[in-house]
Design a protein that fits this description.
It contains 44 helices and 16 strands. By secondary structure, the protein is mainly alpha-helical. Among the domains are: about 170 residues, no CATH class; about 200 residues, no CATH class; about 200 residues, no CATH class. Helix 4 packs across helix 6 and helix 32 packs parallel to helix 42. This is Transposase and inactivated derivatives, TnpA family.
């Protein structure tokens, strides 16, 4: 049974001593005086037994067990203990020739440390622990590791690996049965038949219903909306929304859903009912939420696309109107010239206008071409009316299929939605007289008034319906309207910690972020910060010739930041380092980095299967390169000789966002330990920016953006540290605000990088972000375009601020509403706490808060607080050129990584061909992973080259090295034959490394 999880070689490795790191060496192999006394020779022990007992004493807390071959302990550990005991380290070779000696010493060491062997009671407790964990995780190796950690924490000596693996296997089997037992009440005979029906090909759709449910839309069209609605209706007919899976842990539900989406219908049919039905039920319940979200999203996207098209039509009509009015404008100019000529008497004006100067013909022509006055929106809604028939193809079905709710602010709109749904259902055409119109914006009221005045019920219906649909879309975006049963469009209150939970966690949160719970104290601190920052700005402005100054009219003038003065020495040094670095094909680079980081081991089977074939790493490298270079699996199969089926299987079951993130963390963790990394930056500063890629084919994430794409494209939004590594990647719609996604990967940062400050460009800035960053104990440091034109806020009367700061005070043109902030201070903290503790996704909340209307008092309070934080930041930014340059330098690091990614994604002219968000996200993470591998490899070899130079007597300052970027591809070959070792044996590649495990630098014997 154990060999199904681990190979014989793996089991043997689990019985031996592993390699030891420096931190573990000092932590576990340092003897206290009591430890030395325990192995004292006064007990009759010779040097060999003393040293062997000391190894056992230190190995037990380190490993949780003591290997039989104590003499094979790491040489560094033995030498360290021998030095502390004053014995010869070679004495360990003759230790433990009698098994009884080893056993007795282990027993004594365990008793001294308070450890105990794994007896029946201990193993029973381990089984209970494993069952609880197996209900959450199905990976055997993860459960094995958790078992070892549990035994170690309980001070129980780990039994042999086979024993532990067998108990893991037993726990997994019990967990599967427990899963079925908890859901058994859901599996009536009728539901079982319905679930089995998901696996049968339906002739009406040409595929199984399971595959149909798991295939997302690729465009926002009426047909796509109707397809998703039909899925929703199918799921409701099966009672998917009533399935109660809360009895299962969230991780178990995620695992089962992943299995259901990746397994074929035939594979599921072959599984026994106890395993098949929980998988199908989980997919069904998850689909009920996801399909509902898709319906609402497609409604928003399709409606917005037509509104955008109407906007283009309106602008074209305005341009044509301007062209057609040129003659009338010329006539007006001539008329004004006559009228304002003081040399012409009043009784002559009429004759000149009707006669020789203007003439009746021009007047009649102007009158005949007179254009009607424009409505307040310049004809936008009228242009959208041209798409009325198009919208009617799907909007009635959406209103019928989706239920909408909301608070009192949306009551009138929701009543209008109900009336519209009734009109659609009954076929009535006339809007009833009692239909509400209070939600209709002022700019559109004229359409309804004109239609009512003329008695055109058809026009009134069109404009009222369009206004209702647009208001519904906006309400869904702000959260004023929500959809019960949805995840993305649910009640905003559900995104916040409940009052009871918040009351228990308020103190912990305030301590974590350094914010007082008392509003008056918090605002006093903010006011002190503002006055301090304004004091610095006042000094700068008073100087009159600093980075910021006032012109003669009192307007703020910001001097442009001069180009960063990169030392010529740094440029020359980078060229020299580049010449020293070895050349490496990208495949060899990945093999080398895996040898040092083990990042390929992070790719685990989605179904929990753990046996890893010798060829798996070869296949993983091929898949990673297929995605990161944009070759695709078909061309990669041709290039490397591995069959497409093998690559497709590897990509389907091993390469997913979860494993890509884990592999990325392994690379970042290794990069952090390199000597050169700390010179690049402290790791506390990061930045984020979007990079746009063209797309081919239809996709719901693709948008037309003529500034960047010939047709359509998407954006990847990445988070980069000041040490040049990328720790976050997200695919977003190119036309959406990047500011909504700034906090996502900072809060979801699973690395050991303590991010405290974050830089963005103008696209990442909103008042909401300024407020949330500070409430979360972080600093937002953007580079804002047209910074001198933004509104700055003060905390007191204008006269008071002007008196205190004669130069800076007049720039604060608006007073912040401190009373509003104080009234909602606890709610603001609860909002930030909900994000900090992972209760809600930042992008979801930031998007809704940014779009919220003035009626949302919490959003208004957050924006007021954000305005204060922005003012404080602006004052600091303007008064400190070094701070400005630091932000600019960090943003440039992100740009250099963008350039490296463009070099990598070379195939198909860098055009993304994946059509669904999941596939696009996986490709973006593959690109990030390989980019980080290149950065880590380059950083390490830069360090070796610098060390070589310094050994030869060359002086190289760290200040110069800080200007050198490892986002460098000159020494790496991305092109040519992708030769992934067909036999799956990477030893040949590793043999090319030098005796120290590195490739030799390109200078004579410098490294060795």
């Amino acid at each position: 049974m154990a060999t199904q999880v681990f190979t014989d070689a793996d089991l043997e490795a689990l019985r031996r001593f592993p390699e030891i790191g420096r931190e573990e060496l000092f932590r576990f192999f340092t003897l206290t005086p009591a430890d030395v006394a325990f192995v004292d020779p006064g007990r009759g022990r010779g040097p060999t037994d003393r040293l062997g007992l000391a190894v056992a004493l230190c190995s037990l807390p380190w490993l949780g067990f003591v290997p039989d071959d104590v003499g094979s302990a790491p040489r560094a550990a033995v030498a360290r203990l021998a030095e502390q005991l004053g014995v010869d380290p070679d004495a360990i070779r003759s230790y433990g020739r009698r098994a009884k000696t080893r056993t007795e010493h282990l027993r004594q060491a365990a008793r001294y440390l308070g450890w105990r062997p794994a007896g029946a009671l201990e193993l029973k407790e381990l089984d209970e622990f494993l069952l609880a964990r197996a209900m959450e995780h199905d990976s055997p190796t993860l459960l094995f590791r958790l078992s070892c950690e549990y035994l170690s924490s309980a001070r129980v000596i780990r039994p042999g690996p086979v024993t532990v693996v067998e108990r893991v296997a037993h726990a997994r089997e019990v967990a599967r049965q427990e899963t079925f037992d908890r859901l058994a009440r859901e599996f009536t005979d009728e539901r079982r038949a319905a679930l089995d029906g998901l696996l049968v090909v339906d002739s009406t759709i040409g595929m199984t219903r399971l595959r149909w449910l798991c295939t997302g839309p690729v465009e926002a069209s009426p047909a796509a909306v109707k397809t998703e609605i039909s899925k929703l209706e199918f799921l409701r007919a099966m009672g998917a929304e009533t399935l109660d899976l809360s009895v299962l842990p969230a991780e178990r539900r995620r695992f089962l859903a992943t299995m259901g989406r990746r397994l074929t219908a035939q594979a599921l049919q072959r599984r026994e009912p106890e395993r098949r039905y929980p998988v199908l039920a989980t997919v069904l319940a998850q689909s009920a939420t996801e399909v509902l979200d898709e319906v609402v999203q497609l409604f928003d996207q399709a409606l917005s696309a037509r509104e955008s098209k109407a906007g283009h039509t309106m602008r074209d009509a305005l341009a044509e109107r301007a062209r057609s009015g040129e003659d009338r404008q010329e006539l007006l100019d001539d008329l004004l010239e006559v009228i304002f000529d003081v040399g012409i008497s009043d009784d002559q004006v009429g004759g000149l206008i009707r006669g020789e100067r203007i003439g009746w013909q021009r007047l009649r022509d102007a009158q005949s071409t007179a254009l009607p006055p424009l409505p307040r929106d310049h004809g936008h809604l009228a242009a959208l009316d041209g798409s009325y028939s198009y919208l009617r193809q799907f909007t009635p079905q959406v209103l019928e299929a989706v239920g909408f709710s909301g608070g009192t602010a949306a009551a009138e709109l929701l009543r209008a939605v109900e009336i519209l749904a009734e009109l659609n259902a009954t076929g009535a055409r006339k809007v009833p007289a009692h239909a509400p119109t209070g939600f209709v914006p002022t700019r559109w009221r004229g359409y309804l008034d004109e239609a009512a005045k003329t008695g055109s019920s058809t026009a009134y219906r069109h404009y009222w319906e369009l206004a209702t649909l647009l208001a519904l879309r906006d309400g869904l975006r702000t959260g004023d309207v929500f959809v019960p049963g949805s995840r993305r469009y649910s009640d905003p209150a559900a995104y916040l910690l409940t009052p009871d939970t918040w009351a228990a966690q308020r103190g912990q949160f305030c301590s974590l972020v350094g914010k007082p719970a008392d509003a008056s104290k918090a605002l006093a601190e903010v006011e002190d910060e503002l006055h301090t920052a304004l004091g610095d700005l006042e000094t700068t402005l008073a100087d009159g010739d600093g980075p910021a100054r006032l012109d003669d009219d009192g307007e703020l003038v910001i001097s442009p930041l001069s180009a960063e003065d990169i030392p010529a020495e740094a440029t020359a040094l980078k060229a020299e380092l580049t010449e020293m670095l070895p050349f490496a094909p990208i495949v060899s680079l990945l093999i080398e980095m895996d040898q040092r980081t083990g990042f390929l081991d992070c790719f685990t089977h989605a179904g929990g299967k753990q046996t890893r074939s010798p060829e798996l790493k070869r296949n993983l490298i091929a898949v990673l390169l297929a995605h990161s270079t944009n070759l695709g699996l078909t061309r990669m199969a041709d290039a490397c000789g591995i069959s497409y089926d093998i690559l497709a299987f590897t990509a389907e079951w091993y390469v997913r966002e979860e494993t890509l993130r884990a592999a990325n963390l392994a690379l970042i963790g290794y990069h952090q330990q390199l000597p050169l990394t700390a010179i690049f930056g402290s790791g506390t500063l990061s930045s984020s920016d979007g990079q746009r890629f063209p797309t081919r084919g239809k996709s719901v994430t693709a948008r037309a953006l003529s500034r960047y794409f010939a047709n359509e494209g998407l954006s990847t939004y990445t988070h980069v540290t000041d040490q040049h590594t990328t720790y976050g990647t997200k695919v977003i719609v190119a036309t959406k605000r990047e500011a909504h996604y700034v906090l996502d990967d900072i809060l979801g940062n699973a690395t050991d990088i303590p991010i405290t400050e974050h830089a963005t460009d103008t696209h990442g800035v909103t008042l909401v972000n300024f407020g949330l960053f500070d409430l979360l104990g972080l600093q937002l440091s953007p580079r804002i375009r047209d910074l001198g034109k933004i509104t700055l806020h003060r905390t007191g009367p204008k006269s008071q601020m002007t008196s205190a700061f004669s130069h800076a005070g007049p720039l604060l043109t608006r007073r912040a509403n401190l009373d509003l902030i104080a009234a909602h201070w606890d709610d603001l903290l609860r909002l930030a706490g909900s994000l900090k503790f992972g209760h809600a996704t930042a992008s979801l909340l930031v998007g809704k808060l940014s779009a919220s209307s003035r009626q949302n008092s919490l959003a208004a309070a957050l924006k007021e607080y954000g305005a204060l934080r922005r003012t404080i930041y602006t004052a600091r930014y303007l008064s400190d050129p070094a701070y400005r340059r630091k932000i600019s330098r960090q943003l440039n690091k992100g740009e250099s990584l963008h350039a490296l990614k463009r070099d990598l994604l070379y195939a198909h002219e860098g055009t993304i061909r994946a059509r669904h968000l999941e596939a696009q996200t996986e490709q973006a993470w593959c690109l990030t992973l390989v980019t980080n591998a290149v950065v880590t490899w380059t950083t390490e070899y830069y360090g070796l080259a610098v060390a070589s130079m310094r050994r030869s007597g060359r002086r190289i300052d760290d200040e110069v090295l800080a200007h050198i970027s490892p986002a460098h591809s000159e020494n790496i070959n991305f092109f040519g034959s992708i030769d992934v070792d067909i036999d799956g044996d990477i030893d040949g590649e590793l043999a090319q490394l030098g005796p120290t495990g590195y490739r030799p630098l390109r200078i004579g014997d410098t490294l060795f």
